[in-house]
Specification:
Rossmann fold; 2 domains; 5-stranded parallel β-sheet; 5 strands; 8 helices; elongated; Arc Repressor Mutant, subunit A; alpha/beta
């Protein structure tokens, strides 16, 4: 199953969603109380499903989709006016209050969509990505999550697979090494 991240300003809502998902056997990866915390979590993670309980004062769902929609599926649970304010058609929406079964069904559906969307890397592809990340980490003095996210962002912006970008990074480094 996909990593599930719950975000919401209300501690009670986050806890209630966490209990609901746990009761169905779904493990929650992280609970986020603010948009800044959610953005940090999404940057650290490779992918997953985000369940937003209402809004976050410092993050609009439309902005989150623009930044992370290629890697995450989003479920927004909120009052009708909050759902109408969200313009993205890529966010699945449930009107609050809603039955727990609707939330569970939506999360399961989004997890399945997520699994179908995400590329499945072979061992060789995974090794290629890891080698490129290690190179970026050494060359630029950054940690693994930053190197991974940098590669993801570049690949998304240039509409290419991350493995293709990793190969490009390694080829460029070989070219630099041969000129020295």
């Amino acid at each position: 199953m996909s990593r599930i991240i719950i975000a919401g300003a209300s501690k009670a809502s986050r806890a209630q969603l966490s209990r609901l998902l746990a009761s169905s056997g779904s493990a929650v990866f992280r609970l986020c109380a603010s948009g800044a915390e959610l953005r940090r979590t999404l940057t650290e993670c490779e992918d997953g499903v985000v369940v937003m309980a209402g809004g976050l004062p410092d993050a609009l769902p439309d902005d989150l989709i623009a930044d992370f929609g290629a890697l995450f599926q989003f479920l927004l649970i909120g009052r009708p006016d909050a759902l109408e304010a969200c313009e993205s058609t890529e966010i699945f929406k449930l009107t609050y209050p809603c039955p727990g079964s609707a939330v569970l069904t939506a999360v399961e559906m989004l997890s399945q969509l997520h699994a179908m969307r995400m590329p499945h890397r072979t061992g060789a592809d995974r090794a290629l990505v890891e080698d490129a990340k290690a190179l970026l980490m050494r060359r630029e003095g950054i940690d693994e999550p930053k190197a991974h996210r940098r590669m993801q962002r570049y690949a998304m912006r240039h509409h290419m697979k991350m493995t293709d970008y990793a190969a490009m990074v390694l080829r460029e480094d070989e070219g630099v090494g041969s000129r020295q």
